[in-house]
TrEMBL record:
Domain of life the protein comes from: Bacteria
Endpoints of the signal sequence: none
UniProt keyword annotations, A-Z: Hydrolase
Protein name: Phosphoribosyl-ATP pyrophosphohydrolase
Molecular function terms, GO-annotated: hydrolase activity
Lineage, broadest ranks: Bacteria, Bacillati, Bacillota, Bacilli, Bacillales
Pfam family, one: PRA-PH
């Protein structure tokens, strides 16, 4: 028996059952859920940084996006609102696609 003690995607118990195995799960309360989503985001970020190919990196980014969408709901909004906030911020401050690296700022 392998112990995991972590938040999993909704269909994982069914996938485990389909392989002839069984699992023990429980439903988290709201506070635990937020804590575990934050831990999951860290886990997925670590996996992203450890990725050895573009395909692996994209898989981990997709996992991070799924967790971020779930976190948005815990903050009282949905992924559409999160996207609107992102778009507004990009319109006001720009994105990162121009690869600008700030070295320092001089007083006038």
């Amino acid at each position: 028996m392998k112990t995991h003690n972590k938040l999993i995607r909704n269909l994982i118990p069914n996938i485990i059952t389909s392989t002839g195995k069984s699992s023990t799960t429980r439903i988290l309360d709201e506070a635990e859920y937020v804590t575990e989503l934050r831990a999951k985001l860290r886990e997925e970020a670590d996996e992203y940084f450890a990725a050895s190919s573009d395909a692996e990196a994209l898989e981990e980014l997709a996992d991070m996006l799924e967790v971020i969408r779930a976190l948005a709901v815990t903050h009282g909004e949905d992924s559409e609102k999160l996207e609107q906030i992102r778009a507004d911020k990009a319109a006001q401050r720009g994105g990162f696609d121009e690869r600008i690296y700030l070295i320092d700022v001089h007083e006038s």
